[in-house]
Amino acid sequence: MLVTAKELLQEAEERKTAIGAFNVTGMATMCAILEAAEELNEPVIIDFAPVHEEMGIISLDRIGPAMVALAKAAKVKVCCHLDHGVELDYIRKALELGFTSCMYDGSALPFEENVANTRRAVEMARAYGATVEAELGKMAGLTLNNDHVVENRDIDRANFTNPAQAREFVEATGVDMLACSFGTSHGLYVKAPKLDSELVRELRETSGVPIVMHGGSGVMAEEIHTCVNNGVRKINYYTYMAKAGGEAVRDSIPAEGSVYYHDLQVIGRKAMKENVRQAILLFTNRED
Question: Which of 47, 83, 105, 176 is catalytic?
Fold first, then answer.
């Protein structure tokens, strides 16, 4: 059943849980996500990130209609969400394809420009009845130094989202949810992140909207639970799902003999499905 993110977030608020938002890069990932959600009878968000089109994996034009069709046919509530949209025309394309939620990411822009562009995204999305996510603050700790990734994850609120600014941003834009910086990062962690979970509580209270955690892969279960208890209602998750599928495929390839791509697809999908299943259980604080 295709629904908006706002509907799912309201249910998550009532349950004091978080909705998993998983990136789709093709039919294998999409089926893995939806099969796990249906088995657990839990709602889910399926994301498309423009970076995957830039990487040459698949385009929004091709995967978007399939995402919407499978969401409508699903046995659980599913939201189709555009992740990290930085171009308003690209966001409009997703909305025209039937996406029920979108993210405008102006976090790299000056505050006033981020506000102005986000407001335009909200006005556009409202015409389609869609939910809007925005981002304020910068993801912590990743820099490139002599071709090596260097992490600095000491908690320093100067680098994280400011609660007072978050309130001003939400009031000025009317967004439904806010992605904030409080210690997580995209991709694999070189070392465990240090999250400012108390900042999550302050951001939720001052902004008045659900908080979104980006970089959910690799965060310790205890910190996930604390952040959810403090107001995180959507958790973006992709890297460890993709890693689980890739490693399962790698480990299954024999030293000799033929290898067939369709067999690898099944192996990868099953591994990703189990990884998604465990993530959903974690986000909803279920133990089954």
Answer: 83
pTM, 2 dp: 0.92
Range of the domain at 78: 5-283
Task: Tally the C-alpha atoms within 13 A of residue 141's C-alpha that lie toward its C-beta.
Answer: 24
Whether 156 is a known active-site residue: answer no
**Domain CATH code at residue 42:** 3.20.20.70
Phi, psi of 195 (to 5 degrees): -100, 140
Read off the pLDDT of residues 160-169 as tens digits, 9 standing for 90 and up.
899 999 999 9
134: its two tokens: 């925005």
Number of domains in the chain: 1
Helix locations, the chain, DSSP H = 5-15, 27-40, 50-54, 60-73, 88-97, 111-126, 163-173, 197-207, 221-229, 239-252, 261-283
Q: Which residue has the tokens 């070189």?
A: 190
CA-CA distance, 193 to 273, in Å (whole number)?
Answer: 25
Amino acid at 2: L
In angstroms, how far is the first alpha carbon of the chain from the final one?
24
Asked if the structure places residue 288 within a domain, the reply is no
Cα(137)–Cα(117) distance, integer angstroms:
15
pLDDT in tens, 249-264: 999 999 899 999 999 9
